Inverse folding.
């Protein structure tokens, strides 16, 4: 029987790592004429679109999942870490799939710093274990995360470590806006960071480091890509410390524009303690741009890591990376030609056909 696929997860905007992955995977399946749909549970879920199926609320979500399951769709749920709401939505879809005689597969877009992997029992661990057990197959983005999932009693054969990053991520055309070009021309070195002003992104770590970065690099620039909502207190703090003119907030960017800015940057700064093998980190490395990131246990080879939450260590590592950029760049390595999108499709087909996953 031909596979029909329902992806459940956030669809851009905003253009986060896993929402972009969902969009890219849908595009890949469309090109092969594989019937697939996306049920958007992201911030734009109530906005109707030809690109995805909208969700108007909890009852609408259950109704639409049930409708697809009764039509024989494989339910492919994308889960990002410890969100209780995300786990509940995942379990609801998995239970509906099982009742309807369908199959569910789970993609876990998170790193090893999660409540569900911590000692003891928590709501997140209980819900995550249920979700892992109900899934016909599980994809995660690193061997380290795979090991943690297996420690929860999940059979190794059920879990595949397939990175979220794939070679298609860095296929882009050059797009630079005039005001961005002016900023690039008047600041050096230039750092870039994809940043949401959410607690898990720890934006204070970067903003607390800015005065010391200015002491080291008086004309430095920081390009902050991502939704500006919630950033007002941080920009006020930056103005009080005299570093606001060193910052360019771009808001959400199209992928071509984002990669073009990455290519023109001296290095990328990544602050997110609980993320996995971050797509923007892999994109920067694939473009030959050094990355300074907090050590979350899953950073790829070539990343310069600093102590999580330590702004002073961030400054020290940025200073070292800039001073030794050619040496740092020479250490960048990775499977940048890997077609993880194709591997993902192959894994889903295996789960659908029940060939090797039981």
């Amino acid at each position: 029987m031909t596979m029909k696929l329902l992806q459940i997860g956030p669809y851009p905007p905003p253009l986060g790592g896993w929402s972009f992955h969902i969009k890219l995977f849908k595009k890949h399946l469309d090109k092969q004429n594989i019937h697939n749909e996306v049920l958007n549970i992201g911030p734009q879920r109530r906005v109707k679109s030809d690109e995805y199926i909208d969700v108007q609320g909890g009852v609408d979500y259950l109704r639409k999942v049930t409708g697809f399951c009764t039509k024989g769709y494989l339910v492919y749920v994308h889960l990002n870490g410890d969100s209780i709401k995300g786990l509940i939505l995942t379990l609801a879809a998995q239970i509906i799939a099982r009742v309807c005689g369908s199959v569910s597969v789970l993609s876990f877009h998170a790193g090893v710093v999660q409540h569900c992997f911590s000692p003891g029992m928590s709501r997140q661990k209980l819900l995550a274990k249920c979700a892992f057990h109900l899934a016909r197959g599980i994809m995660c983005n690193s061997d380290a995360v795979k090991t943690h999932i297996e420690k929860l009693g999940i059979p190794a054969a059920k879990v595949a470590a397939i990175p979220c990053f794939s070679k298609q991520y860095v296929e882009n055309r050059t797009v630079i806006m005039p005001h961005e070009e002016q900023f690039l021309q008047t600041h050096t070195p230039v750092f870039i960071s994809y940043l949401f002003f959410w607690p898990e992104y720890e934006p204070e770590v970067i903003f607390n480091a800015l005065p010391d970065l200015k002491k080291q690099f008086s004309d430095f620039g920081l390009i902050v890509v991502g939704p500006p909502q919630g950033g007002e207190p941080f920009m006020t703090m930056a103005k009080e410390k005299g570093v606001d003119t060193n910052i360019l907030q771009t808001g959400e960017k199209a992928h071509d524009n984002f990669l073009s800015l990455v290519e023109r940057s001296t290095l990328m700064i990544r602050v997110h303690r609980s993320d996995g093998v971050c797509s923007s980190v892999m994109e920067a490395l694939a473009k030959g741009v050094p990355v300074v990131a907090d050590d979350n246990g899953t950073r790829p080879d070539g990343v310069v890591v600093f102590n999580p939450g330590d702004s002073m260590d961030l400054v020290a590592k940025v200073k070292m990376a800039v001073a030794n950029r050619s040496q740092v760049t020479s250490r960048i390595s990775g499977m940048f030609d890997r077609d993880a999108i194709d591997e993902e499709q192959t894994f889903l087909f295996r789960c659908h056909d029940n060939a090797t996953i039981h």
Notes: The chain has 13 helices and twelve strands. The chain has two domains: 5-166+338-353, 170-330. The first strand starts at residue 5 and ends at 9.
